Amino acid sequence: MSTERAQIAAACQRLAAAGLFIGTAGNVSVRVADRVAVTATGTALGLLTADEVTVVDLDGAVLAGRLAPTSELQLHLGIYRSLEARAVVHTHAPRAIALGLVRDELPVIHYQQLPLGGATPVVPFHPFGTAELAGAVRDSLDGRQAALLANHGAVTVGETLELAVEHALLLEWACGIYLDAASAGNPRPLSAAQQQAVADVSARLAYGTPKPIR
């Protein structure tokens, strides 16, 4: 999994540059078949190198790497055992944390949130690295690509690492928009009918996909 380990290092550097990772706080993983490449515990994510990524099996046994995997390993493995995700990003992004302190969910306030699966729930607080947190996050992601963790951070998933990273960046952007709007008044979410209308238009126009001029 040398390619995946290098991809994780690059993704961590990108997320750190965007302000979603601070120091050693956060973790990223990619699944290939029954193996998972995951960031090691205690590593500076903005400077992460491929050899600081560990490979484990779905039971958590280390298969490659010189460092112990993240303390949130069970969170990642719990998602892979139950969901179709192939990549997981867990951040301590500041706007995601702030919103999770005051809301029970992030409503859909902009149509760009639709790829996240609708409103993003806030998972009740559980200490990091625990089975309780892993189970609560796994359950909250059923049918969704993102969850906020109360007093903690955020988790996003994707069919690829690139998508999971994009979802993390999108979630942080949406949290920031909501918090900015809330400082001026009561944000107006999109209704279910409005969301469906946007989804219909997006499907018809293949929105977000490059198209040649005809």
TrEMBL record:
Domain of life: Bacteria
GO terms classed as biological process: pentose catabolic process
Domain Class II aldolase/adducin N-terminal, residue spans: 6-179
Gene Ontology MF, one: aldehyde-lyase activity
Gene Ontology CC annotations of this record: cytosol
Alphabetized InterPro entries for the sequence: Aldolase_class_II_sugar_metab (IPR050197), Aldolase_II/adducin_N (IPR001303), Aldolase_II/adducin_N_sf (IPR036409)
Keywords, alphabetical: Lyase, Metal-binding
Keyword field contains Metal-binding: yes
SUPFAM superfamilies assigned to the protein according to its UniProt record, in alphabetical order: AraD/HMP-PK domain-like
Protein name: Class II aldolase/adducin family protein
Species this chain originates from: Nocardia pulmonis
Classification of source organism: Bacteria, Bacillati, Actinomycetota, Actinomycetes, Mycobacteriales
